Amino acid sequence: MRPYVIINAAMSADGKISTKEHRQTKISGNQDFARVDRLRANCDAVMVGIGTILADDSSLRLKTPDLIAERAAAGKEEQPMRVVIDSQARMPLDGDMFKKGTGRRVIFVAETAPEERIAALAKKATVIVAGTDKVDLNLVLDKLGEMGVRKLMVEGGATLLWSFTSRKLFDEIRIYVGALIIGGVNAPTFVDGCGFTRAEGFTHLILKNVEKIDDGLLITWLKKEE
Ligand SMILES: NC(=O)c1ccc[n+]([C@@H]2O[C@H](COP(=O)([O-])OP(=O)(O)OC[C@H]3O[C@@H](n4cnc5c(N)ncnc54)[C@H](OP(=O)(O)O)[C@@H]3O)[C@@H](O)[C@H]2O)c1
């Protein structure tokens, strides 16, 4: 069974998820950080694309001690599984994802990834080949399902989210809209990729909820089945 997929990200009022130098920036506040950590704690796995790791050195770990303790008390690993989509096995071996927090790390690579990189990563993580020259997200979701992942949180970035949203490989989108403008044609937006033409049609959503958090809005959308 494939996991239920929740995409969660924070964007500025003009739709940017980081700056034109692709630098991570504070878009929400403490109340929203707590919400995101709670969501991580409630998921079996959290995922990003390699672009996010290379830009931000994200550790992807759950940080709130009470949430870590809650997971442990419920008989779960302290940290949800941390997953990176990385066709060419570019994941840095000294990255924060390996240095911080406990638990399972899983890197999905493609068949064309250099063997020596796969071997080096395999000392620190479970490396799974899924796809020929690019990681195939359908295979990834099947594999995560087999590994017992029932709820998956996908945190970005813009390129990975295009793949998930354009192929309709998600169930829910939770997007925090912060009270700032970042601007810049080269700053990543919530979803980048090549985009749809009108003839191709779009990915349609159903509005589920709107909530004021900190000085911005959390919008929850569901995928519209067509
Ligand atoms: N505000 C937020 O909530 C938030 C959250 C996360 C990230 N971000 C920002 O997003 C930016 C990074 O976004 P990004 O677009 O550069 O990188 P990304 O989406 O994190 O990663 C994209 C990379 O993933 C790999 N990939 C492998 N298979 C793929 C597939 N099937 N579909 C899509 N990607 C696949 C590709 O590299 P290979 O071909 O080498 O595998 C691709 O270039 C950073 O600036 C970061 O700060 C913001």
Describe the structure.
The two termini are 21 Å apart. The protein has helices at 30-42, 50-56, 65-73, 96-99, 115-122, 137-146, 158-166, and strands spanning 4-11, 45-49, 81-85, 105-109, 126-129, 151-154, 172-177, 205-213, 216-223. The protein has one domain: 3-Layer(aba) Sandwich (Dihydrofolate Reductase, subunit A), CATH 3.40.430.10. It is an alpha/beta fold and 226 residues long. Helix content is 27%, strand content 24%. Strands 5-4-3-2-6-1-7-9-8 form a nine-stranded mixed β-sheet. The chain contains seven helices and nine strands; from the N terminus they run E-H-E-H-H-E-H-E-H-E-H-E-H-E-E-E. NADP nicotinamide-adenine-dinucleotide phosphate is lined by residues 9-10, 17-18, 22, 24, 27, 48-52, 55-56, 85-88, 90, 134-135, 137, 155-160, 163, 188, 192. Residues 9-10, 17-18, 22, 24, 27, 48-52, 55-56, 85-88, 90, 134-135, 137, 155-160, 163, 188, 192 line the site of NADP nicotinamide-adenine-dinucleotide phosphate (NAP).
